[in-house]
Design brief:
Layout lengths: L2 E7 L13 E2 L2 E2 H13 L4 E5 L2 H9 L3 E4 L7 H11 L4 E5 L8 H13 L4 E7 L13 E4 L5 E5 L17 E9 L1 H9 L5 H6 L4 H6 L3 E5 L13 H12 L1
Parallel strand pairs: 1-4, 1-6, 4-5, 7-11
Antiparallel strand pairs: 2-3, 6-10, 7-10, 8-9
Length: 245
């Protein structure tokens, strides 16, 4: 079975334009993600999907595959789906381009579970750390069944509670590593409009939930930190220094 990793990298981010090219310890963030992804599947099986020529040139000069996708992709998954139309594989792993601390072992774990559950979408999750605020709308929170099937994902701090004594001691967040098959991606891409809940939350995985698709969550390491805003750069660089040591 051929597995490829596709890293969506959009230059025109509303919150942080040019984010994929942001330098972290002197290296573009997208390159950090690509190099870690290559540890999981090999460099030839890593593709960066972008609408931007600067990102395309930067990543190809670093020795990675890049595919120019359309400018009107509504989500990163739509961008991955465009790659699926051009590159045939059995498993497509979507690794977010703003997660420069992604663990290759976690990617391998996601791939393993996709092989075990080929007709389900696989997504990572982990515990929200004490340094993170569950009320932060940039962190999608997840609730799930006893056998790790996703019930719902929200930018709100879920689960809620009626009385303070029932306030959860632990919250869980989505880790943006997904595994799809080609059919799932093409189905997603054929629906050009965002679904109702997806529009409300601005979380694309909800489009699958609304179709009744099973999303199986896989526990990943707790070290994942995303660069959502410029203020996140300092704390991510601090963690990257630890890795370099």
């Amino acid at each position: 079975m051929r597995t490829i990793i596709v890293i969506p990298a959009r230059y025109k981010s509303s919150r942080f334009p040019g984010k994929p090219l942001t330098k972290l310890l002197g290296k573009p963030m997208i390159q950090w993600v690509a190099e870690l992804s290559a540890e999981a599947v090999g460099q030839k099986n890593v593709y960066i999907a972008t609408e931007n020529k600067k990102i395309f040139d930067t990543i190809t000069q670093a020795g990675f595959n890049a595919i120019l996708t359309s400018e009107n992709c509504q989500t990163g998954t739509d961008r991955v789906a465009e790659v699926a139309k051009k590159i045939k594989a059995d498993i497509y792993v979507n690794v977010q381009g703003d997660e420069p601390l992604v663990d290759p072992k976690d990617i391998k774990k996601i791939i393993f579970m996709k092989k075990k559950y080929p007709d389900e979408i696989i997504n990572g999750y982990t515990v929200i750390s004490k340094n993170e605020d569950p009320k932060n709308i940039n962190i999608p929170k997840v609730i799930f069944t006893n056998d790790n099937r996703l019930i719902y994902i929200s930018r709100r701090d879920i689960p809620g509670f009626k009385e303070k004594k029932y306030k959860p001691n632990v919250y869980h967040k989505q880790v943006c590593i997904y595994a799809f098959n080609r059919e799932e991606l093409l189905q997603f891409n054929n629906h050009k409009e965002k679904s109702v809940l997806e529009k409300f939350e601005d979380i694309e995985i909800l489009r699958f939930i609304e179709w009744g698709k099973i999303i199986r969550l896989v526990r990943t390491s707790s070290g994942s930190l995303a660069v959502d805003e410029p203020k996140d750069i300092e704390k991510v660089e601090k963690e990257l220094k630890k890795i370099k040591k």
